[in-house]
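Exam revision sheet. Question 4 asks you to relate a sequence to its structure. Input first:
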Amino acid sequence: MQDSLLLGALAHSLLAGEPTVDLLVYRCNRTLGKSWRWIRPLALRYLEKYGAATRPRHRDVVQFLRDDDGLQRAWSKYSDELIVSEMLISPPRMQPVAAAEAWDLPAIDSPGDLAKWLGLDPGELRWFADLKALGYRRSGEQLRHYHYRILAKRFGSVRLIEAPKPRLKDLQRQILLWILDKIPPHPAVHGFVKGRSIKTFVAPHVGQRVVLRMDLRDFFPTFGGVRIQNLFRTLGYPEAVADLLGGICTNAAPRNIWDEIAADLGPVDVGEARRLYARPHLPQGAPTSPALANISFYRLDCRLNALADSAGASYTRYADDLAFSGGEEFEKSVDHFGLHVAQILLEERFRVHHRKTRVMRQGVRQHLAGLVTNRRINVMRCDFDQLKAVLTNCVRLGPESQNRERRPRFRSHLEGRVAFVEMINPNKGKRLRAIFERIRWPA
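Answer key, structure tokens:
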């Protein structure tokens, strides 16, 4: 079928208003100017494909119509009679999936409404959303929305820290506060969730016969821009609004930031990182990225949790760290179970960092996220001893002698580490706090 006008008009009819079969039939027949017997079966096929899912994009509906055999037969039989009598283009409005209806999300029905909600004019909104990825081609620092810092990781890979500039960061914080924070995370998720912590992440795995730890590669950049835009459409936002919200929360890193990459990284590593960060993705450093990653990972959390239940295991996740544990039954199948997890993740386009995968039985030290889990939650002995030595040397030699990384807020850094130990092991934390209180800080 070559009549793009007819396909576009029918697509608008299918997308306008409530997706019930009678309304779809009425709108399509009104668009065509008369009633057709083949419209109802077409509407039923449309509902079968999209009725229980996120509202599709207009271009996806056009492609659905282009590929529909029933419409093709009708076109070949009635091509001389099929005309667009009336173009039904209703004003866009919120249309959330059933689960999202109870989340009290702000109603934003158009790009103009979104601009007002964010306190921007339409031009500024397009500038910050950058849907054409112009930032990828900009070379001037003043024209970019992010500051960039490249960190070398173990095993020869790199991590790109993308910190939004103040104005964009304020927009992202508004989206986080009024939209993303209202969406409940999966019960197994403990990273970046209010009321949960690294301690709650580890707790279900304490004293287990076997613990399986897995780590995901390139966690944040794996979430592509289209995936984030689809998430906002799932929440009910019209296509144009969802695309702009997704654009504000994602980024494509400019090409020239890699020019001053560390010399000890090979060209293969740099090339892979350049390709990974070149497409729109969740930037590590944006306030919205952790929440968006958790929400987007929800279906995977459901699949992994169900898999763990079937194997008699417990499952928790802290960002890109996955933990499974169980008793004798789980221990027998743990190796095969890990392969099954990796396969599920691969189906969702995530990759396991196999060098970091660990199967830890009771005979060895079981640890997750830097905490020991064999009998009770505890900090690692080496970490405790190292922090104790730093604090003791601060008392003896002065804090400047131990600030080897030249941290601008070294006192806050040390106090935070002490507070972390206090949270995990109050007795050990009390001993460290006593040493910390003896440090003489410069005025």
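Marking note for examiners. The chain has a mean pLDDT of 91.
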